Structure formats: structure tokens, C-alpha cells
Amino acid sequence: MTQHPDTVAYLGPEGTFTETAARMLRLGTDDAALVACRDVLEVFRTVERGAAARGVVPIENTLEGSVTATLDALAFETDLLIHGELELPVNLVLAAVPGTTVDRLVSIRSHVVALGSSRRWLAEHAANVEQMPSASTARAAQEVADLGAGHAAIVNPLAAERYGLEIIAEGLADRAGNTTRFVMVGTHVPPATGWDKTSLVVFIDTNRPGALLQLLEVFAARGLNLTKIESRPTKTELGEYCFFLDVEGHLSDERVGDALATVKRTQRDVRMLGSYRRSGARQRDEAERIGRDDAVYRDAAAWLAEWRGRAASDA
Predict the structure, then answer these.
(1) Which CATH fold topology does 1-90+179-188 show?
(2) Is the torsion defined by CA of 249, 291, 253, 84 positive or negative?
(3) In angstroms, rounded to a whole number, what is the distance separating the alpha carbons of residues 243 and 245?
(4) The pTM is what?
(5) DSSP secondary-structure letter at 278?
(6) Reported CATH class of domain 93-172
(7) Which residues are catalytic?
(8) Under CATH, domain 191-309 is a member of which superfamily?
(9) What span, in angstroms and rounded, lies between the C-alpha atoms of 211 and 79?
(10) pLDDT tens track of the chain, all 315 residues?
(11) Residue 113 contacts by C-beta under 8 Å, 6 or more apart in sequence?
């Protein structure tokens, strides 16, 4: 199947926060097509079969934590890799067909993350209203537009406008600064930029005291900062967990590569999820430090190679 090289699949339908993230992650390619998908797994399948070059899905929210559907898909359902990330502030509003009021609602629909992020507002203003999870915020808007009066959706303003809904309440997030992190997935590993992150899933060798500490010490000993540590069930046996790690740096960096090789050697299995540019502005001091540290590791490797060469020649 031939597609425009900039075609991007995203968690739909039209009007989701993910659509906004997908448009921003296209990096100005205005002629790129967007393909709306029903759920996270369909985004991955669309890219895998070549109907889109890349996919965009949510992976983490500041209030509700990780999007488990995305983590599980990356770990167990696909070989696609993360290409990049984007942090997007989330503005949650309550929208319904025109003329609807909060006191007449019988149901409020949204994605589970948006419902969870609005817990306080819902308890105060709609405690007796049924909460209905939807596949996405925009899907909730679509459902409410079809259902009519008495139903509302927690969405972004774009979805409300796109589905002809009226905003009847604003500022629903429990805390200011509500942000969702989105990732773009594809088939290759982008080159290092000096401001990177590497994501992986580690399946520890045996479940014993100190096993996680041993894993973390691999990164600590090399001065590598872990920005995320999260456990998820391995889906094979009750009580068995794997660990999702985000480490600062690119797999081509000497320190990161050395750490990854050690983890691969000492643990039962490792799945690479991607090595890509981090979100936010690049910090020059950090890039320079990575360069200095890599030089130290290269010098150490060269020193060891020299001594191994001498040992071979003396044999």
C-alpha cells in the first residue's frame, strides 16, 4: 500500500487531543494526511501494515499517570519504536448539545484519563450523574452529539466545536498544569541530537530481594538519570512484573550503550521501545556533559583494547 511519506495515524476520531499532538509532531508538513483510528492498538496496526508512515498516541498524563493501553501495546503487541515525544497542556471542558444545563444531565462521557483528571469537579457538580468511559474524548463528543439533551462530554474545545456542542463548564481539571505526553511511533531509530531519551522494558532474571536495585545500579554507576520507572504485569503469571524505564541519553551514547549491554547481559530479556529526542528545549550544558562523559568511556574502551591486544600478542 502506497501512502504519502508523512501520513500520520492517531487516536481518533477528529477533535481529540491526540489529533492536536499529531498536527504539531508533523513538524510543519502541511500536506501530510492524518488517519483517525478507533483505539491505540489500531494506530499501531495502521502503521505496521503501511497505511501510515507514523502513529501518535498518548502515553502519560500528569494527573492520571501512564496510559496503560499504550505501554502494553509497545511492550507486547508491536515492534514499532518511539520516534519522538510532545508534552501538550490539556484544557478540559464540559460540552453538550445547545440548551443543555449541568443540573439536567443523566450521563457524562469521556476517556478514562479525562474522567479521572476531573474527579474533583465531578464530585462537586455532578455527583449523581453516571460517568461513561469512551475510547477517546472526541469519541465522547461524537456520542453526545448523537444522544442529544441530557448527556455531556469532557473534551477539549476543538472537539466541542467540531461536533457542534456547546461548552457548559470550563476548567474541569483537578489541578492547574494538567499535561499529557504523546509519542510518535514508527519503524526506525532517529539519530542522536544531544538531547535524547531511551525507553525500554526490562524483564528481570528472577524475582528475588534486590533484583530491582541491581537493575537500577547499572544506570546509577554510569551517572545516567532515569526519568521514569514503572512496573506492569508480564501477562504470563500472577505476581510477575516487568519494568518500563526511560533513561536520559541516546543508545549511541557510550554510557547509555554500555548500560544497555549490561542490562541485556544480566537480565532475562530487554525490549527496546525507542531512542529519540526528548521534549522541551535542548540544554547546551547537558549536551556538552554527555560529550565529555562519552570521551571518558571511549578512552577506557581504547585502554582495555590495547591491553587485550598485548595479551594476545604475548600468547
Answers:
(1) D-Maltodextrin-Binding Protein; domain 2 (3.40.190)
(2) positive
(3) 6
(4) 0.76
(5) P
(6) alpha beta
(7) 180, 182
(8) ACT domain (3.30.70.260)
(9) 26
(10) 445 567 899 988 888 889 888 888 865 555 568 999 989 999 999 999 999 999 999 999 887 788 999 999 999 999 999 999 999 888 899 999 999 999 999 999 998 888 988 999 999 999 999 999 998 888 899 999 999 999 999 998 888 998 999 999 998 988 777 788 999 999 999 999 889 999 999 998 777 777 888 899 999 999 899 999 999 998 888 878 899 999 999 999 989 999 999 999 999 999 999 999 998 766 656 656 666 677 777 787 787 778 777 776 665
(11) 58, 61, 64, 67, 180
Residue 39 cell numbers, joined: 483505539
CA–CA dist 89, 180 (Å, integer): 6
Q: At what angle do helices 254-266 and 284-314 cross, to 10 degrees?
A: 60
Contacts of 315 (CB under 8 A, 6+ apart): none
The amino acid that residue 125 corresponds to is H
User: Any residues with CB less than 8 A from the CB of 254 and at least 6 apart, and which?
Assistant: 293, 294, 297, 298, 301
